[in-house]
Write a structure and sequence with these properties.
Number of helices: 0
Largest sheet: 5 strands, antiparallel
Low-confidence stretches: none
Distance between the termini: 15 Å
Shape: globular
Mean pLDDT: 94
Helix content: under 10%
Order of helices and strands: EEEEEEEEEEEEEEEEEE
Strand content: 35-45%
Number of strands: 18
Amino acid sequence: VNSPEYGVHVTWMASASFETTFPDRNMRYNFYDYTAGAWNWIDPDFMQSGVNTFTERCGYGNLDADPATGVAIIPAHVHTPLTPDVARDMAPGAGLFEYCAGAPNMEAYLWPPLSVDANSKIHVACIDDASRNALFYSNVDPWCTWANPVGMAAPQPDPEFSNQNIAASKVSNKVCVTWEYSAGSPDPGFYRISTDGGGSWGSPEELPWPNAFGGDTSTSYHITSLYP
């Protein structure tokens, strides 16, 4: 993610362990500083460059940057029961994070991609841990105040898998959530739009197939394919 006045933020899920449970799994973070013209952290094993975002085993986050401050905002599901947690850097590229866990009203939700709007409001799309297939929306506004999760898919089908994504505009109050129905054949895609920063939502709509596809192949969305 590019913060034009500061640099480029990067995150990825990393583990130095070869155990199949990846006991040290974390969201790794690095920053390319435009002023210095260099990455803040470099390791001979490039996948181990950077710093761990969270202080305990976590996973399945993404990344956005606050357009007002240029700092990285990184989510993951952490704790027991699994709960969305948001890490906010103290300064662009500092690698020193403060945390906002979603407990208690966000306990038992996981896979929480987020997006930050022009007013620093954090929008989150997640799945409930009980079913592991139903899509919910929450937000963090102000910092460390989580809204109660709201179901997003009905009357369209829920994702049935962690394939949701979310984007918040940096110039308006629009937010868009997308998901793919992974139990379909072919798999349809859906989206839902808010024009008031997540306060209310339009009806879920099916996303048409792209015109470029069709003919000699079966057109389908995929669990990795949708981004609003």
